[in-house]
Amino acid sequence: MSGIAGHGAAVHIENCGKTFPDGTQALAPASLDIVSGETLVLLGPSGCGKTTMLRIIAGLETPDAGGRVLFDKTDMTAVPIEQRHVGMVFQSYALFPNMTVAENIGYGLKIRGVDKAARAARVAEMVALTNIGGLENRRIDQLSGGQRQRVALARAVAVRPRVLLLDEPLTALDASLRDRLRSELNSLLRSLGITAIYVTHDQAEAMELGDRIVVMRKGAIAQIGTPREIYFAPQNRFVAEFVGAANIVEGPVASGRLTLPGGWLALNDAADNAAAVAMIRPETIGIVAEADAFLRGTVESVAFIGDRQRLVVTGAANKPLTVDAPNTINVRAGERVGLSVTPQAVRVLPKED
Amino acid sequence: MRDRLIFAGQLGFTLLVAAFLVVPVVLSISAGVTVNYFRGIQSGVTLQWVVQVWNLYAGEIGLSFLIAFATLAVTLVVGVPAAYGLHVKGGRLSRVIEEIITLPLAIPGLAIALALLLTYGGFGGFRQSWLFILTGHVIFTMPFMVRSVMAVFASVDIKTLDEGAASLGASPWTRFCNVIVPNAMPGILAGSLMVVTLSLGEFNLTWMLHTPLTKTLPVGLADSYASMRLEVASAYTLIFFIMIVPLLVAMQMVAEKGEKK
């Protein structure tokens, strides 16, 4: 299938920062390597610098002095976007209202001087790939949000870009459509084998689509890792709390035990620490009989969600703990319970100021 | 019953206001085709005044259209890229420039004309040619073109469209032709409509800038009011109407068609 996508470039970003003329630093100098064919997700809340990073890679922003962008070891820093041979999907899609769907998809090919027959064939190929058959002659304002998204993707991929850049492409859609398009997009990116850089603030999108995720915060990279690494081994409190639900507990660590108000938890090789901070994911906490556990608490509330039930347990840690329990167990608010957590599930986080 | 009374009252008032505005126009036009206005319409209907005006002022009429379309050409060639530049660049400097372009709306035409005369009055060739009036008209109409094009740019997010085209490999000039101009068309048409109409009807500035050999329609009109019989001046008004109304209607239709797209 790589024939459809063309060649995916390896992208190297070196010390790229961005300070705007008014003095605000949108991005602290950062370096990144994106392997050929990889999908890298830039994840973070709004204002974290993820879009600025994407725009620097695209060539829509120039990095501060000292920053460099390389595609396959060629320095592209001074090359304008129109010569970088990228494909870009914008949050607002940026489809041309003065052209039909087919003309939009074929625009990049027309600019490159591809002759009419070859262009038509490529457009047909893209239309089939993105499931928008029958819409070729529609105007853009006659399309639904989901259809526009597909056209934008088809237009960006049609030119066989070296790097595909996606700036929150699903954000403008409603929730159910977003889920469906997310998995379609995932299989499309996999089958194309294209180098893709994907910006989002939605951690579920990041998890599903990313080979690796770059979590960003306040213009700096907070952590780079695979979705599993980011989820199970966050390097700091921000990542732990931003990605998935997390219980952050505080207490002293001594001889491999974290002591909490309701008992203690065993840890895997943790250094002694008078005031440690640790993260426990809600689904890793098991509900057991009070007598069988070293950590105990009182169920404050039970919310039945369907596939699971979400309990809030007080008295165990310094803050109420959220526990995702199977939907089959029978617990009531006010009940005393024991909590079992494996040592692997407790992640001690570095101290932050 | 009460509703009908209110309706009748409103209709009467509307007709009265309309009549207040329309009657002078009708009187003026009818005067232009009357043999002797002081004796009234019973003196007979004639086209002699119209023919006389045409013979006397055909040059002015031609020059007016020449200036109007030259003004349109200049405001298009300069104004549309300027609007694009100002919109894409943004920031404080752009706003200052926009304000400066808009200033001629607030400054009396006489003052602009005076400034032009003070500055360029010494350049005899320029001063005596129709290009001098063209300069005044361009200054006066430019804000209408720039503003109406910028309004469209703001509503269609032209910056992202431009970036989209750039990401697909289009050079700045190609983007301007393929994406910017077609999507700014409603604003360009509305701006053109205003520029041509304003230029054809402009009097203040033109009156100060004209020479005996460079007179436009409105200046000629003032001239005929001042120096000829009322019937001739009225015939002039009639010709002015015949010239400008179809043009206005045509451009309005084009603008509406552009908006529907």
In short, what is this structure?
The complex is a heterodimer of chains A (353) and B (261). Chain A is an alpha+beta fold.
Task: Give the topology, please.
The complex is a heterodimer of chains A (353) and B (261).
Chain A: H1 2-5, E1 11-19, E2 25-34, E3 39-43, H2 50-58, E4 68-71, E5 74-75, E6 86-89, H3 101-111, H4 116-129, H5 145-158, E7 163-167, H6 175-192, E8 196-200, H7 203-209, E9 212-217, E10 220-225, H8 227-232, H9 237-242, E11 247-254, E12 257-260, E13 263-266, E14 273-280, E15 286-288, E16 295-304, E17 308-314, E18 321-326, E19 336-340, E20 346-349
Helix pairs in contact in A: 3-4, 3-5, 4-5
Chain B: H1 2-32, H2 48-89, H3 91-102, H4 109-120, H5 124-128, H6 130-156, H7 158-167, H8 172-201, H9 204-209, H10 217-227, H11 230-260
Helix pairs in contact in B: 1-11, 2-3, 2-6, 2-8, 2-11, 6-8, 7-8, 8-11, 10-11
Please characterize this protein's 3D structure.
With 353 residues, chain A is α+β, with helices and mostly antiparallel strands. Helix content of chain A is 25%, strand content 33%. The mean pLDDT of chain A is 91. Chain B has a domain at 59-226: MetI-like (MetI-like fold, Orthogonal Bundle). Helix content of chain B is 83%, strand content 0%. Chain B has helices at 2-32, 48-89, 91-102, 109-120, 124-128, 130-156, 158-167, 172-201, 204-209, 217-227, 230-260. In chain B, helix 1 packs across helix 11 (230-260), helix 2 (48-89) runs antiparallel to helix 8 and helix 2 (48-89) runs parallel beside helix 11 (230-260). Chain B is globular. The model of chain B has no long low-confidence stretch (mean pLDDT 86). Chains A and B meet through strand 6 and helix 3 of A and helix 7 and helix 8 of B.
